[in-house]
Amino acid sequence: MRAFLENKANCYEKKGFYNASIELHEKALAIRTKLNSPLAANSYNNMGNIYQSKGDFDRALIFHQKTLAIRRDNLDSLHPDIASSYANMAISLCSLKEIDEAIKLVEKSLSIKTANLDSIHLDFAFSYGVLGDCYFDKKEFERAIVEYKKAQRILTKVYSEEHQDAASMLYNTANCYVGLKRNEEAIDLYHQAIAIQTKVYGDKHPDLASTYNNLAFAHYQKMK
């Protein structure tokens, strides 16, 4: 029953039905709590991710902190799941403008992953992407580009050049080039991202709209 609830909740989340997803994850959490299961951490983690998707980063942080507490009690300190909790907390902290603290947590996450995982593991791409976001928010665009390109290389090797996550890294890197007023490079990357997003999503997805909007700004900035 718990697995069914979580699978259905994940489907709702992908469709953007966040409140319905939260309701089902809460039911799954109640089952795990009743069984006194350390897997309650997974339910807290899922709920933290949904609140991040909703933009409610204060609540997301609370759930990811609960996740980390349970995982610390039940797992080795170098377990990859603990690294994932650090990275998830960093996302919320970065969005709450506690950027230096977020960077420290991502670096902890990367340290654990380096001890446990192959260098082209997707978990590295996730952490590099979060670190890139932190540096972007600090307006350290050159450093952000370095991290986004690390993530891009891994995503391309693991998936392909036509995966939506690879498109996201192209988009993020292009945003950095706009910040540096390197508009030609930004425009080229936006076009690459649009080609992938159109192929993956079709022509009416919100991510595609954002990319077109930023592409237009890059052209405008180029003409100034």
Detailed description of the structure:
It is a single chain. The chain is mostly helical. Helix content is 82%, strand content 0%. The chain has helices at residues 2-14, 18-34, 40-54, 57-74, 80-95, 99-116, 122-137, 141-158, 164-179, 183-201, 206-223. The longest helix has 19 residues, at 183-201. The radius of gyration is 18 Å and the shape is globular. The model has no long low-confidence stretch (mean pLDDT 87).
Category by helix and strand content:
mainly alpha
Strand tally, please?
A: 0
Overall form: globular
Order of helices and strands: HHHHHHHHHHH
Note the main sheet. Answer: none
Fraction in helix: over 70%
Q: Tell me the distance between the termini.
A: 59 Å
Strand content: under 5%
Average pLDDT confidence is 87
Radius of gyration: 18 Å
Count helical runs.
11
Sequence stretches where pLDDT stays below 50 over 5 or more residues: none
What keywords describe this structure?
single chain; 224 residues; mainly alpha; 11 helices; 82% helix; 0% strand; globular
Offer a concise description of the structure.
The chain is mainly alpha-helical and 224 residues long. The protein has helices at residues 2-14, 18-34, 40-54, 57-74, 80-95, 99-116, 122-137, 141-158, 164-179, 183-201, 206-223. The termini are far apart.
